[in-house]
Amino acid sequence: MITKEQVMSALEHVYDIEIGYDVVSLGLIYKVNIAENNDIYVEMTLTTPMCPMAGFMVQEAKDKLKEEIKEANNVFVELTFDPPWSPDMAKDEVRQVLGI
Known about the structure:
By secondary structure, the protein is α+β, with helices and mostly antiparallel strands. Helix content is 30%, strand content 20%. It has a 3-stranded mixed sheet, with helices on one face.
């Protein structure tokens, strides 16, 4: 059985290259669901709806999940902007380094 921890660990290897931190540390992952058939569903956001790297980051998340979790069947990554991301969602150490 795939765990949420496995999914989050894989997603720690997906970076917002404009900011230089991974999507988990930035607080961009909103939901993780794993179906009984090992389909993985991730709902994530971006720091801004106008992010030019949106397509790249979604594809990178899918690729990392398929690559690192061999048991994964189908992988779905959906973008949402509700609620909008705010710097408060990032881990403390990220906020400190970025000065926010």
